[in-house]
Amino acid sequence: MAHAILRPTVIHFLEMAFSDEEMDINFEEIPVVSGCKLVNTTLQESKIRQSLDVLIIAIKKADGTMEFNPKPDSRIQEGDTIVTVGQAANLKELECLLK
Q: 89 by DSSP, 3-state: which?
C-alpha cells in the first residue's frame, strides 16, 4: 500500500504490464548455454537492444552474483542468466540466440 502512495507511476506501469493483454510486455529470464554464439561478447557487440528491441535489466552470473542495469561493456558468459523485458516475440528470438 505504501508503494502505491509513494510510487504511483511505477505501480500503474506494473499493473498495466501484467494485466493489459494488448501491451504485450513480458519479463523473462533466459539462460546462456554452452555453444551460444553470443558467449564472450559485450552487450554492445551483441546488438540485442538494437535488433530485438528488448531491455536487459540484469545479468545473473554463473557464480550467483547479480549485475543490475548492466553496462554496454558487460560480457555475456556461458552459465549467465539474462533478465529481460520486451514483447513476447522478441523475447522468443533472444531465447533462440542464447541457446
A: helix
